[in-house]
Amino acid sequence: MHNIRNITDSIIYVGANDRRADIFEGTYPIPDGMAYNSYLIKDEKTVLMDTVDKSVADIFYANVKAALDGRDLNYVVVQHMEPDHSATLEGLLIRYPEAKVITNAKTVPMIKQFFDFDFDSRVEIVKEGDVFSTGSHELTFVMAPMVHWPEVMLTYDKTQKVLFSADAFGSFGALNGNIFMDPGEYVLYVDEARRYYANIVGKYGAPVQMLLKKAAQLDIRVIAPLHGPILSEDLGYYIGLYDTWSSYTAESKGVFIAVASIHGNTLAAARKLEALLLEKGEERVVVSEISREDMAEIVEDAFRHDRMVLAASSYDGGVFLPMHDLLTHLSYKGFQNRKVGILENGSWAPSAARTIKGLLEPMKGVEVLEPVVTIRSTLKDADLPQLEALADALIEAGK
Ligand code: FEO
Question: Where does ligand 1 bind, in terms of residues with CB under 6 Å?
Fold first, then answer.
């Protein structure tokens, strides 16, 4: 059974939702499923914009067939070779033996890496700025290397002012009925788009900035990403979010406290710091226990807020492993430009703060606030002046 919908009079949505998967890319929780978008331009030529993940292959093939409505497929544009968009490429080309692949030169070796299939006679190479006419639509190609793979390109439909944006502006979550952004759900979209951005694209802020500069030259009315809803209103707002995220600028003023606590005593101290901050007038404080929550959400919160506190137990001469794990994630994702407080606990010789500092040290623009607070096993009244001083430093850093 197919499920297709028109985006414009000549662009048809042929993507599909996977509502049964629990994780994306083998690691990121997707409690609301995942959308794999694909679009058919139906003009004098028929042109498919990317394929989909193999988990939704059956409905995708049915959708393409229904959208073509008896016509043949002439072209498929490959904007990105990650398997969530290309795993069904070979199957598609077998079903439509006359269809040609339009892509850039960097993609071709990747196609051959993923598929043992003779593509050479079926590929047409395009480069930055090339124009391809489908009849009434004119498509131009915008190279976007490292957003977030080397071969990524975007496609701009000059005629209908649609930007096919590959993974950019994507989000976690299946589409619920409305394939366009539902204004009533924009908070959920932004939360999941931010979690997606920080964890999947986060390292590649500079390439995203370059892409945004190119996009600023285009008159865009619709953004059609490969995941999540199609954006057709308030585009300046969403582009502004991407600008914030990709420039490693905090989106929200507030203190994010990430906690790695073995027996709950470090957590209790972190909660006391939260209370002190709120008493002192901080409006937004978010506390997360790393080992109990989705790491992707924690990375998202670290990117989102302008200040962070790392509260951790000492462990095996270093730091309790959930905190080490978080800092490894942040390092991989290019985390930078934040003010960070440290609260360590040690029942033996405290070692968490030293280890945390060492892991923060290579991160660009990360400033450790003074004082670094050390407690021994449990928070005591005698520790409160130190904790107060850290709270004051955090408040001051937020001004
Ligand atoms: Fe949605 Fe980078 O693949």
Answer: 80, 82, 84-85, 148, 167, 226-227
